Amino acid sequence: MTNSPSNALPLADIQLQNAPGLWPLAWGWWLLIVALLAAVLLAAILLRKRAQRVQARNEALVELTQSDSLSKINALLKRAALSYFDRDHVAKLTGTPWLAFLDSQLPATKHSFMAHDELWQKGIFAKEGLTDSELAQCRTLAAHWLKHALPPKASLNVINSKEANHV
User: Fold this and answer.
1) How far is CA 151 from CA 55, 56, 82, 104, 148, in A?
2) Cα(150)–Cα(82) distance, rounded to whole angstroms?
3) pLDDT tens track for 29-55
4) How many angstroms separate the CA atoms of 32 and 36, rounded?
5) Residue whose C-alpha is closest to residue 130's, from 85, 42, 67, 57
6) For a tag site, which of 40, 85, 110, 121 has the least CB within 10 Å?
7) For residue 134, which of 121, 119, 146, 113 has the smallest C-alpha distance?
8) pTM score, two decimals?
9) What string of DSSP letters covers 24-86?
10) Higher local confidence (pLDDT), 29 or 8
């Protein structure tokens, strides 16, 4: 028997590198994390500001359900308006100018206070007051105004947020 020469060379095995780990993160991931944290923080700040802006309106809507006379509903509307609009302008309004102001804060298609001027005047000044259905109608008008006019969309009439008081 003859010995065959060996063709195997004395080579070392191939050494594979370890798979890349998750840590340390690449710079792109750090940018994504920072952007997500900034977005969450911004959303939290905006939600808190919105909650503060609508707080007076929400309190007025709750109190409106407990109002049993038109004078209380009117006073509630006045307090809610004073929470959002310039005190010098709103505080002096009564009667028809007050109802015109309420209508002016609503879109033109939703004006309804001036159309019910006689009902409001009767409820506030007449001795006999309003019937239950008339009072319910006034309460509906007030709720509609609170929901659609507050907080005001135009920043010209909005007072400083620190001055927005509870109703």
Assistant:
1) 9, 9, 11, 14, 8
2) 11
3) 999 999 999 999 999 999 999 998 889
4) 6
5) 67
6) 40
7) 119
8) 0.68
9) SPPHHHHHHHHHHHHHHHHHHHHHHHHHHHHHHHHHHHHHHTT--SHHHHHHHHHHHHHHHS-
10) 29
